[in-house]
Design brief:
Layout: H1 5-13, E1 24-28, E2 31-33, H2 39-49, E3 60-63, H3 73-89, E4 93-95, H4 102-108, E5 117-120, E6 134-137, H5 140-149, E7 151-155, E8 158-165, H6 174-185, E9 193-198, H7 200-204, H8 207-215, E10 224-226, H9 231-238, E11 257-263, E12 270-272, E13 280-282, E14 293-297, H10 298-301, H11 304-314, E15 324-328, H12 332-340, H13 343-350, E16 353-354, E17 375-378, E18 394-397, H14 400-409
Helix pairs in contact: 2-5, 6-8, 11-13, 11-14
Cofactor: [4Fe-4S] cluster
Protein name: 3-isopropylmalate dehydratase large subunit
Keywords: 4Fe-4S, Amino-acid biosynthesis, Branched-chain amino acid biosynthesis, Iron, Iron-sulfur, Leucine biosynthesis, Lyase, Metal-binding
């Protein structure tokens, strides 16, 4: 019987020949990730279980990215706790300060390959499906069970396959595509479903672009985001990882598969308006929205391509008076590339503030928070009330190009 990518991967992980959407399976986990914010609760729960040693010290990845350097005594204590756990358990893959955002560095450092089951105590773990893995966010207490056993109960999801066709216009990017899709289906349009992205538009995209799409699958309720591996995937993976892997693809006659056509030929730059990610409009239709802060970064759009797009626009220009612009590369690798390419000089000369690789204001718990009545334009993935600071502030979401253009004009502006 025909199966989707998710069904095939979960069948392999649970040592059975086939799975059907809706079934509960006990899956063997290939990679488990916690960071400095979600790790402490997972560790506390792990200790309550009473297990002395983690199931596999080489399959656990612990990056610090949410509150680095420590911004409070609480976060400093969390860091101390996690460092102690890493030492006690002899965790192999521990990334302390300045390595970057978890969802960026796991693929960069070769931890993600096609066909694996990846779990992370962070909802945007679905990013890694861009490399053909079944990757999903779980709770910290669930992670304690993974630490103990290396397994987790999972319900096999149905699949929404978005067949994206058309050639993107100039200054229209993957971020505009995913905002458009979420605007069409709604924040609950793919609840507990695997969101596959396919079609000629996706084939033309880089791995970084595909990561943008999969990153935001959770914003329409998705259990994971997925792109079938192709030659680009294999080149990326083989240059970064020495792990063995198996490639899975969806059978188009699978009973649990729903196909949705998306045409992007006429798509223009999009923006998600407060306070929901599906409140999406073309930038040309939102009117005159003045901004106080621009945030270029996050696990969605803090990659080198985003920094290049923004620098191209900012070069020779100045950030508008009264506007703060934060540039936060998603990883040390990206930071170094931007430094070597002279992009940092462009950002600093324009009046932007460049910060160390981290999550920054995205989570509303670290640098660059916005105050009551302020408006932020962000390249991140969520614009819920209070997400980046005050619940009396407003957050809009856009591509890096729209963000950079708007930083110059002082209001949300199409590139």
């Amino acid at each position: 019987m025909s199966m989707t990518m998710s069904e095939k991967i979960l069948a392999k992980a649970s040592n059975v020949d086939k799975t059907n959407a809706g079934e509960i399976v006990m899956a063997n986990i290939d990679v488990a990730m916690v960071h400095d914010l979600t790790g402490p609760l997972a560790v506390e729960s792990f200790k309550k279980i009473g297990t002395k040693k983690v199931w596999d010290k080489d399959k656990i990845v612990i990056p610090f990215d949410h509150q680095i350097p420590a911004d409070s005594l609480d976060s400093a204590n969390n860091h101390i706790m996690m460092r102690k756990f890493v030492k006690e358990q002899e965790i192999t893959n521990f990334y302390d300060l300045n390595q970057g955002v978890c969802h960026q560095i796991l693929p960069e450092l070769g931890h993600i390959v096609p066909g694996e089951v990846v779990v992370g105590a962070d909802s945007h773990t679905c990013t890694h499906g861009a490399l053909g893995a079944f990757s999903t966010g779980i709770g910290s207490t669930d992670m304690a069970m993974v630490f103990s056993t290396g397994q987790l109960w999972l319900k096999v999801p149905e699949t929404n396959r978005f067949n994206v066709e058309g050639k993107l216009k100039e200054n229209v990017y993957a971020k505009d595509v995913i905002l458009h899709i979420i605007g069409e289906v709604g924040v609950d349009g793919s609840t507990y479903k695997a969101c596959e992205f396919a079609g000629s538009t996706i084939s033309d995209m880089t791995i970084s672009d595909r990561m943008v799409l999969c990153n935001m699958a959770i914003e329409m309720g998705g259990k994971t985001g997925l792109v079938e591996p192709d030659s680009k995937t294999l080149k990326y993976v083989n240059t970064r990882s020495n792990k063995q892997f198996e490639v899975f693809k969806t059978d188009l006659d699978s009973p649990s598969l729903t196909q949705i056509a998306i045409d992007v030929d006429d798509l223009e730059p999009q923006v998600a308006c407060p306070h929901n990610v599906d409140n999406v409009k073309p930038v040309s239709e939102i009117g005159d929205i003045e901004i106080d802060q621009v945030f270029l970064g996050s696990c969605t759009n803090g990659r080198i391509s985003d920094l290049r797009d923004a620098a191209k626009i900012l070069k020779g220009n100045k950030v508008a008076k009264g506007v703060r612009m934060l540039v936060i590369p998603a990883s040390k690798e990206i930071y170094t590339k931007a430094l070597n390419e002279g992009l940092m000089n462009i950002f600093v000369d324009s009046g932007a503030i460049v910060c160390n690789p981290c999550c920054g204001p995205c989570l509303g718990g670290h640098i660059g928070l916005i105050g009551p009545g302020e408006v932020s334009l962000s390249t991140s993935n969520r614009n819920f009330k209070g997400r980046q600071g005050s619940p009396e502030a407003e957050v809009y979401l856009s591509s890096a190009a729209t963000a950079a253009t708007s930083a110059i004009t002082g209001k949300i502006t199409s590139p």
